[in-house]
Amino acid sequence: TTLANDVVCRAAFGRKYSGEENSNFVMLTKRFGELLGALSIGDFVPWLGWIDRLNGLEHKLSEVAEEFDEVLDWILEEHLNTLNIQSNRDIPKNREKVKDFVDVLLEVQGDERIGVPIDRECIKALILDMFAAGTETTSTLLEWAMSELLRHPRVLKKLHEEVRKINQGKTSVDEFDLEKMEYLKAVVKETLRLHPPLPLLVFRESGEDVKINGYDIAA
Questions:
Q1: 89, 90, 111, 148: least CB-packed within 10 angstroms?
Q2: Where are the domains of the chain?
Q3: Is 16 exposed, middle or buried (0-12, 13-18, 19+ CB in 10 A)?
Q4: Is 211 helix (H, G, I), strand (E, B) or coil?
């Protein structure tokens, strides 16, 4: 989960928040994830929603929402200050800060050509969506992928060979390398097929016998 959280943070904020000085943020995201999976009686039986207030769930949700709102406000202000500093200085293109998700949203916010108003609350909601949809699901996928690879040494060896061949001795893998890793994509897709991250994901069923890429799929 920490790895997935770091990846989402780097994509959204430009840096990770798993260090000692950012422990409050990490704990907040953990509490947020736990509450997402908490049982809410009111969601299933609306007229029993008072139970959520009685057991403290509603208070916890409000508390986390307020804390997250404060954190997101701070992050937005930090990015706005950085953008203002860059715009006021003559910084060479090759030394400019690499834009992250928040930077792009802030730039789009001031663009009247998009035709869709994006205010501060919309930006915070989009960031929250990234955490809600990208943290636990990613960590669950990684755990299942590693588990399946350990159970299938032949697949693990083939994947290892592909990564070594395309990476060619480099110490890190970039997005351009990932585009070439077809077998890795297949492993990810097969993991998603076998172990959907969302437990209540609707299953798909073939209505008739079909053949796809040489494979017989029974109805």
A1: 90
A2: 1-137, 152-218
A3: middle
A4: strand
CA distance 77 to 73: 6
Task: Indicate whether 21 pLDDT > 50.
Answer: no
φ/ψ of 217, rounded to 5, equals: -110, 115
Instruction: For residue range 70-113, list pLDDT tens digits in order.
Output: 888 888 888 888 776 666 555 555 445 667 888 888 888 767 67
Cα–Cα distance measured from residue 217 to residue 32, given in angstroms and rounded to the nearest whole number? 40
How many alpha carbons fall within 13 Å on the CB side of residue 48? 8
User: In angstroms, how far is CA 130 from the centroid of its own chain?
Assistant: 5
Q: For residue 98, which phi and psi values (nearest 5 degrees)?
A: -65, 130
- Whether 199 has a pLDDT exceeding 80, the answer reads no
Are the C-beta atoms of 13 and 100 separated by less than 8 Å? yes
Token pair, residue 61, equals: 């949700």
pLDDT digits (tens, 9 = 90+) for 137-148: 788 888 899 999
Most distant CA pair in the chain, distance: 64
* CB contact at 8 A, 33 and 1: yes
Residue predicted with more confidence, 7 or 56: 56
Average pLDDT over residues 25-38: 77
Instruction: Tell me the chain's radius of gyration from C-alpha atoms.
Output: 22
What pLDDT is stored for residue 33 in this prediction?
Answer: 74
Residue 95 identity: R
CA angle, residues 138, 139, 145, in degrees to nearest 5: 90
Q: Output the six-digit token pair for 185.
A: 């994509």
